[in-house]
Amino acid sequence: MSDKDFTRTITVDRTPDQAWAAINDVRGWWSRTADGGSGTVGDSYVFDVPGVHHCRMTTVEAEPGRRLVWRVSDAFLAFVDDTAEWEGTTVEFDLTPRPGGTEIRFTHVGLAPRAECYEVCADAWNGFVTDSLRGLLETGAGAPMTGTEQIDVAALRRAG
Question: Domain Activator of Hsp90 ATPase homologue 1/2-like C-terminal: where (predicted)?
Answer without folding.
Answer: 19-138
